[in-house]
Structures are given as C-alpha cells and as structure tokens.
Amino acid sequence: xxxxxxxxxxxxxxxxxxxxxxxxxxxxxxxxxxxxxxxxxxxxxxxxxxxxxxxxxxxxxxxxxxxxxxxxxxxxxxxxxxxxxxxxxxxxxxxxxxxxxxxxxxxxxxxxxxxxxxxxxxxxxxxxxxxxxxxxxxxxxxxxxxxxxxxxxxxxxxxxxxxxxxxxxxxxxxxxxxxxxxxxxxxxxxxxxxxxxxxxxxxxxxxxxxxxxxxxxxxxxxxxxxxxxxxxxxxxxxxxxxxxxxxxxxxxxxxxxxxxxxxxxxxxxxxxxxxxxxxxxxxxxxxxxxxxxxxxxxxxxxxxxxxxxxxxxxxxxxxxxxxxxxxxxxxxxxxxxxxxxxxxxxxxxxxxxxxxxxxxxxxxxxxxxxxxxxxxxxxxxxxxxxxxxxxxxxxxxxxxxxxxxxxxxxxxxxxxxxxxxxxxxxxxxxxxxxxxxxxxxxxxxxxxxx
Length: 450
Ligand code: IUR
Description:
By secondary structure, the chain is an alpha/beta fold. It has 18 helices and 13 strands.
C-alpha cells in the first residue's frame, strides 16, 4: 500500500469506521518494515484505543502481527500437549515459576515466552535471572532441546517472534494506549499464535493494582481473548483474578523465587497455590488431559505435592544454564542455603503497625511503587533490576494486629528508607475494626469458550 494511504486508514478508524483485513495487514506490514512513521503509528493506536475494534478486526490484527515474524515449529508427537499461560501483570505474580514445571510434570510441553516489562517490579524473566547462571536467551532449537529434557522452558522474546508487537507495544507505552482491549488481545495472541501452542490460559487481573480496575472491564478483555484465541486455533480460557493486594507474601525477584520454590514443594501461601492450580487445571482440561477444570486442578496440586513439579523446575534450570550443583541446592537445599545462593540485600527494615486493628487490605500499588524506587523495577528498556530488593508481608488480610507489631519487612541496599517512602508504605496498610476473617478467593470467575 502506498505511503500516502496511511493517513486515510488513520482517518477511517478515527471516524469510527471498521478497517478491512487487507487494510490492517498493510498497516502492520508497514509497521514491521519501518515505512510507517512513529507519529502515524501513535495516531492509529489512539484511534483504535478510542474507537475500538470488533472481533473480526481484532482477529485480523492478531494474525497480521503473528505473521510479521517467524513461527515456531514442534515435533508432531507434541501436538495437543503444547500449552502456555499469560498474565496481564500483577504485583508479586510468580505464578509462572511454579505453573510451567507443574504442567510439565503433568505431561505437557510448555514453551513459555515472557516479556520484560516496565512494571514497578520485574517480570518472570527478571525473577529467574536472580538465579546465578540462568539464561533467558534461547534460540528455537535450544527451546526444543530444553522441552525434550525438562518439559518446560521460560525464555525471552526473540527479535524474530511477532516483531510488529515489539514496535506497537513500545509505542503504546508512551502514548497512553496500553489499556485498549483489542490492542491487548492482539498483542498477547499474536505471540501465542507464532509460538504454535494448542491451548492457552490467560490470568486477567482486575482491581486497584491491575491494568483493568473493574471486574466488568476484565471480563470483557477475557471474553475477547477467549473468542479471538479460539478463531486463531488456540483453545483459550481465562481466569479473572483479584489484584488489590500482592499475590502471596513476597514481592521482588529473589524473594519471589524463594516463595515459588515453597509452592513447588506443596507449601507456600494459599492464594498462590489457588491460582497455580486453577490456571493449570483449566489448561489440562482444555488440552484434553483432564475431564474437567476441577479434576485438572487436582492433578496440578498432586504434582506440587509429590515433588514432580519441583524436579521439572530443577531440570529446567539446569537446561537453561544454571550449574547443576546450584540447581540442586536451590531445589533441595534449606532456606538458608537458598538465601545464600540468591544473595540478600544489605538492609532489612521492619515497619510497625501504627495502631491495633484487623488487616482489611494491603494495597499492592503503593508498595510496588516504593520497591521500584528502591531498584526492584525498571523505568526504561535496558535498565537493570536489583534482584535483592523486595518486601515480605509479615501479616495476612483478615489478621488482627497489635500496635507496633511488624507487618512488613523491606529488603533494600540503601541506608534507611526515606520519610516519604515510609509514609507511602504505611498508607498501604488498611486496618479496620472487624473481627478477624478468612481472606476471600483470588479467582473471581472463569471465562470459558462456548
Ligand atoms: N502482555 C502483552 O504481551 N501484551 C499486552 O498488551 C499486555 C500484556 I497489557
């Protein structure tokens, strides 16, 4: 398509018309080839953000983005068993670290490709890179070898996989167009389509620390992902999960690895295990390995409890560059040995409860913002993350606190937390006068294909 016609396409979407498949394809080709100017891409993204896209347009966008690069290819014998999980992003979300090996232990092949976002705290790869020797950079040939050995891998996105998404995602980030349902749908699914998986589960977060704050907006995104995923030939299901408080008790790369290890030993926080088994159960059911999502969740739980998931994790680490002795120590060692291997921050500072009360909520977003300032996240692509920075929740929602009781332990490499940081952290703790109570479930709803 001639360059002059790009303004016509932008105008069409700006005025609320729908785009034809060929128009979407030509736009994405231009984005990939670098012939569409950044300003034009930004304008188109904003037009899509404001005017939306119907399911057919979103499907065409996802297909065109998937076709912008290379697709992966897998042995015929793995057909139907190739699965993946994606999350829209949450604070303390270490689900993938436990879920990928647990699924491998259930006979699946899990070629998990993870982005490296600009979140307040790191993504899945950043967490794994807290482990000395771990390598996220793996070619398609290496991925296949790792899947043969361990059943799962967690790697970075290569330049060749859906390159159009790389361009669009970076520009969405700087044009306030991240939270567009069709753009999120096409971004996630283009990569999964190029990955050639049979089944996909998406953890769509909602709440105060999620991209989509309301249950209704998260449900709409989930329905879009499930419908468009199905049209792409990927059996897709979604779980709507709460993201107000951090998931589990730990935030920050090294601490999250330790917590994921507990989950892989059949221990650890209940909400983390709930999410891992619910998402894995959906996948086992979707790929025909379990008769229902509930039975699938039971199978996942057994893999966590019987040590097979932990063995798959150790095999994955070994296959991705971690020296075997370190992988062994991490998976079979004591808490102290694990901490020594991962390293610890110079300072651990406890915050006291300002008064008596019952924990009503621990707001994840202010906590994540302070940890970001302390070095746990990145502001620009290429920034380095300090894996030792993090925080441990010492209390749970619903628990009664005494005045002065430590409720949060901050791990950092600086001297002292600043007054503003302390204040922001203390404000994250919401106390009420209720009787102690059990926290509610994380998963609010499942969204299944028709
Ligand atoms: N993850 C993606 O891969 N794409 C997106 O747009 C979002 C999360 I939001």
